[in-house]
Amino acid sequence: MPVDVRTVESPESAEIYITATPPSGIPVHRQAEAIFPEIKHVLEMTGARLLEERIFATDKAFGAIEPIRAGAYGNLADGIPPSRLAVPKGIVGEIAGIQIHAVRSSQPPKPLRLGESACGRVLYSSGGEYISLSGLSAPDVGPDPTAQARAVFERAETALKQVGADMRSVARTWVWLDDIVSWYPEFNRVRTRFFIERGLMDRRSEAHRPPASTGIGVSLSGGPRIGLDLVAIPAERDSMRHYSAAGSQGSPYEYGSAFSRATIAMTPAGKTVFVSGTAAIDARGATQHVGDPEAQINDTIEHARAVLRDMNCADQDVVQAIAYSKAIAVERLVRATWKQIPWPCLSVLADICREELLFEIEVTACPGARDLPVSEAAPTEERV
Question: Is 0.85 topped by the overall pTM?
């Protein structure tokens, strides 16, 4: 079973990135029984605690997954639920995979709550705070997706304010959009207006820019129209930089999308490069290679690599990636291509923001990261 572990370390902390894909061709409960004990083993061997966790599976699979996850994690579970992301059954089966970002530090992450609900974690260290929010949604405001979108951003802001942060502290967002093609322009209008109101999109100033982001046709389990995960790092402004254009692609502002191509931020153990969701779109914002999935895959990967090069990152610095394919046939092509790319990557089925786009990828990189075989993962006294 492929469980890829990457790490980046500083004298004070270590960040652990786990990409886990279960065995294929077996029932969902057996997939869960195979994968979660392995994740627990990595966390125990590295002495790390969860910061972020995303599970991609079919909606019906979560009933089987949750008790097995809880039993496997034991006291490593801190009451913060993972982002439960409902995707169609793919090549692997009911569970597409799990991504985890964990940390080993002198203090464990502390839970964050919104009212009665757990919504994320905050890590305090000498370098500042690192905040993750996960699975935010707002179905209670009614069925209108634009109302849910506005409410989700407002709830994220409320959660951030509890720890002295605001939307200008946000480095990276993941926006999970049900039936994305039917309302993506409306979502963009809501997001753009909110970001302008909060000072993230002032064209007269270079001081504030929107975060890196993925907006993808994946639903939170249970059916809200929108879900939100984010990473925020409240610190001096020079510790985080947003790039509106990077690599071979221009600014998405020019075609109505409020995100940056990439963000560089200081995270617990060093520097992290967040590359936004990237597709086969040219410098002017036009879709490339309509109807040619192989060409879209190849150009998309090259666009992402071009951003990494601009950020002074190489393939070996990539700690996580997610490949989103619109159909099984596209996913098969992606998996064939992936044999030549050394990135740890999950492959999931998802709708893309334009009908003619068949593939999208996102990448996270940490300069100086290394592959961590589990045999090397046990923390020494000096590292704990």
Answer: yes
